[in-house]
Design the sequence.
């Protein structure tokens, strides 16, 4: 006697679009990582200069935007998968894991941006103190020159 098996498959609405969006976001993240590698190489030995920190900050903010988009897309995917397949389904769990990793990466990026901003502020303050020191030195030289001219 033949046993008849019936199987069904439910696809998420827009699952193909979601996969395209994820591929696009992941591709852009790879591009940004390569830009960061280039910036790091270009500023080797000057990693804490204002120019290097500014370039790094710009790239980090673009990475943050992409990562935030990835988190939003995964949040929608988890919600859609839970609705279509149920909370305990392996596909829903897979999206949840991806979402957790994406949120962790976003938190790491936020920390890197904060660190970079702190270093940039330190570089600005250091440059300001240097300019003040140069101004003070110039005043002392003028004063010494004036005093020498009066002798």
Sequence:
């Amino acid at each position: 006697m033949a046993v008849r098996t019936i199987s069904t498959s439910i696809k998420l609405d827009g699952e193909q679009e979601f996969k395209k969006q994820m591929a696009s976001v992941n591709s852009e993240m790879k591009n940004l990582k390569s830009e960061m590698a280039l910036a790091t190489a270009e500023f080797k030995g000057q990693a804490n200069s204002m120019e290097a920190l500014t370039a790094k900050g710009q790239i980090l903010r673009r990475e943050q935007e992409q990562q935030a988009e990835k988190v939003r897309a995964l949040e929608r995917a988890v919600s859609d998968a839970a609705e279509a397949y149920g909370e305990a389904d392996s596909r829903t769990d897979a999206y949840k894991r991806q979402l957790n990793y994406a949120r962790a990466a976003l938190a790491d990026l936020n920390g890197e941006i904060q660190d970079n901003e702190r270093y940039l502020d330190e570089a600005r303050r250091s440059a300001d103190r240097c300019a003040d020191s140069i101004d003070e030195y110039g005043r002392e030289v003028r004063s010494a020159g004036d005093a020498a001219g009066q002798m």
